[in-house]
Amino acid sequence: MSATKENRVLNTGAIQIVLLGLLVAGIYYSTFEWLVVKDWARDDYSHGMLMPFIVLYLLWEKKNWFFDVPAKINWQGFLILVPGLCLFWMGDLAGEYFMLYFSCWLVVMGLCWIHMGLYRIKNIWFPLCISLAMFPLPNFLNVKLTFQLRLISSKLGVAMMRLYGMSAYREGNVIDLGFTKLQVVDACSGLRYLFPMLILSILMAYFYKSRLWKKAVLVLSSIPLTIVTNAFRIALTGILSEKFGSAVVEGFFHDFEGWLIFMVTLGVLMGEMWILNRLFPEPGGADNEDQDDEEDAVPVEVEPVKSGLLQPQFLVSVVLLGLTLILSRGVEFRPAIPMVRPFAEFPMAIDGWRGAPTTMEEQFVEALDFSDYIMADYTDGKGAPIDFYVAYYENQQKGESIHSPATCLRGGGWVFKESGKALVPLGDGRVLPVSRALIQNGPYQQISYYWFPMRGRMLTNAFEMKWFNFWDALTRQRTDGALVRVIVPVGQGESAEAAEKRLQGFLRAVVPVLDEYLPK
User: Which of 106, 310, 464, 497 is the most core-located residue (most Cβ within 10 A)?
Assistant: First the structure.
């Protein structure tokens, strides 16, 4: 190829990259704005801001081999690009950011496959795959994982303190030391250590010149190792707080403990690599033969791609991305649907029940971002209380959607004794499906019901809610909806069955009234 023709090909390729990049940036601009401003600002995912630089370094390391292999256009990349764009619409209309993150990754993968070919893609698979680590987990999975890690860390921490000789008692995620109480909050769950250590162990395994099974051992061992070292940090906090007071629970000492545990875990992983090499030396000094063989295997039958702005694959890619950008920016799928009546008019006297309105702190109002809400404590003629809460959203968008209360009371000493679904007869021929939970904190018990009134439907879980938000946005141009949560405490000397019967009696009185406020 002549120098002039080669420059023309390179210039055309650069134009293709810039044009496709601008289209992708236009489609996912608000998504990545949320990622940088919101998700990377969370301590559990602050490592995400380093991932783009790590990915760029890994790609730079492959640059010589990458450009030695000619590109080959491949229509099969649309098998990834098209589902990625479909996932974009599901995430955008359902208000689910994780779908949008994964959609962007699929779209970029599909574009790379289409315009570079499989031979190039398979040798940069690791940087492309590990780039997923810059995205947070889905919220429901993040909450469950945080909760379970808190309980495990609390249990192990208490066991270590008892082994040391301290008296420690655990109730939920609260550790009672007698002289003080330690609460293992979300920040102490170990999640913010687990993700960075897992990513670091994967990077170490990638550069570890050894057999695949050794790499797997290194990566898998980082999970229990991080959990154990985090439990040790909790135990150390309890031990030191007995000697030095609450200063070790927060501030510099607390942060220093976290940094020290992270470095200790890293040292253990490095020691693990040394032990594996000593106990299981590579025969003949083989160094990661599988990876070397893969990198040296340059295909000989690949024909160079004929670059041009009129390539059908490029034109189809531009059309698909362009239509997605135009429709997502130019068509309103979620117009605001106001309430029939504002909650300020909601009665405080309903069929023998008397209510007293309460207010929510401003920081929670801003975080939940609802359109209107009501919080009230209702009592019957005997003074038995029920906590009533409803939040209404005129439309649900990315970052402005209903949050499931499934995990709101987890931790703080509360333990879920029962959870599941229930059907509440309303007495007018209707049966109300609710999500039910019986929770306990020492001698205290509460029963909670919640459900989601959604455009004539009564839903009981977040997955249903997300699906119907997507479907109704497409077919009805509506995503309005509400969350209703009622809680009844089990009185002293009262059975849970009696308290639940009282709660269901309240629902038979309040649900018909609530129907007059929410749009159908």
Answer: 106
Residue with tokens 């009533």: 388
What is the pLDDT averaged over residues 25-43? 91
Residue 500 is which amino acid? E
- Euclidean distance between CA atoms 493 and 387, whole angstroms: 20
Q: Is residue 466 scored above 60 in pLDDT?
A: yes
Asked if 85 contacts 324 with a C-beta cutoff of 8 angstroms, the reply is yes
Higher model confidence: residue 441 or residue 190? 441
Map 31-71 to HEC letters: HHHHHHHHHCCCHHHHHHHHHHHHHHHHHHHCHHHHHHCCC
Nearest to 411 by CA among 188, 90, 248: 188
Helix, strand, coil percentages (3-state) for the chain, rounded to 5, are 60, 15, 25
Task: Kindly report the pTM of this predicted structure.
Answer: 0.80
DSSP string, 379-426: E-TT--EEEEEEEEESS-BTTBSPPPGGGTTSBTTBEEEEEEEEEEE-
Give the model's pLDDT for residue 262.
77
| Sheet with strand 181-183: strands edge to edge | 169-171, 174-176, 181-183
CA torsion through residues 11, 17, 19, 22, sign:
negative
pLDDT at 252: 58
Q: Are residues 166 and 237 in contact, defined by beta-carbon separation less than 8 angstroms?
A: no
* Interatomic CA distance for residues 503 and 495, integer angstroms: 13
**What percent of the chain is modeled with pLDDT above 70?**
82
Whether pLDDT at 211 is above 90: no
Please compute the mean of the pLDDT values over residues 96-118 and round it to a whole number: 91
Q: Which tokens sit at 200?
A: 């670091």
67 in Cβ contact with 139 (< 8 Å): no
Amino acid letter, 505 = G
**Which letter does DSSP use for residue 187 in this model?**
G
Spatial distance between the Cα atoms of 413 and 171, rounded to a whole number of angstroms = 5
CA distance 200 to 223: 11
Q: Dihedral of CA 21/26/27/29: which sign?
A: positive
* pLDDT reading at 197 higher than 80: yes
Cβ pair 397, 479 in contact under 8 A = yes
Question: Which residues neighbour 298 within 8 Å (Cβ) at sequence distance 6 or greater?
Answer: 65, 68, 69
∠155-404-139 over CA atoms, to 5°? 65
